[in-house]
Amino acid sequence: MKALVINTEYNCFCRELERHGYNIIPTKKIETFLKPEQRHADMQILPIKDRVFTLDTCVDPIGKNYPENVRLNCLYVGGRLYGRISAADASVLDFCAKEGIECVDVKQGYTRCSALVLNDSAVVTADPSVEKALKSRGAEVLRISAGHIRLEGFDYGFIGGAGFADENIVFFFGNVKKHPDYEKIKVFCERNDSKIEILCENEPLTDLGGAVILSAFSY
Is 1 helix (H, G, I), strand (E, B) or coil? Predict the structure, then answer.
C-alpha cells in the first residue's frame, strides 16, 4: 500500500483515496504560513530522487510571506529542478549541485503549485513562466486558463494543487469537468496514456496543495 501525504481538511477526498488503496498521512499544520497554505503538501515536503526535504530540514528562514514561504515549492521532473532559485532552500540547491541536477530558474515562486505532472515529460500549467521553462528543456506542456479552482482564502487555486498523477492515473480533487479547458485536459491526458479519475464529483475542483507519494520515504 502506498502512503500519500495530503491535506486532510476535506474528508471526502481522503475517503475516496483510501478506497483506491492509499494509506493517508496528514500533512502538518504550519502555523507560520497563511491559513489557506498551512496544510499544503506542496509547501512543506519535496522529494528529489531518494531524498525527501521537509521544512524541518530547511536551513533558510521560513516565513508567512514570499519568498520565505516557498523554500520547498520547487518542481522536480525529468531529472531537473524547476523553481525560483533565489527563493529555494540552500539545502535543496546544495543537494542538486552534489547530484549534478540542473536547476532551472522560473519566475513563478509557486512553481510546484502551478504544475500538474502527468509523467517525466508531460505537464499541465496555467503559468507562462513555468510553461516556458519546461518547454525549453523538451517537455510537452498543456497551457490552460488560470482560475476556476477553489482555494478558500484566495481568489483561486492552482492546477498542481488540485490533483496528482500516480502511474497512469491522474486524480483530480473535485469536478475537473467544470473547468473551461476540461476537453483539452482530457485529450492531453489520453495522449499521454493517462486515465482521469475524479474524486468527489459533487465538489468543485479544489486546490488541496497536491499530494506526495511516499512509497520509499518516511515522513
Answer: coil
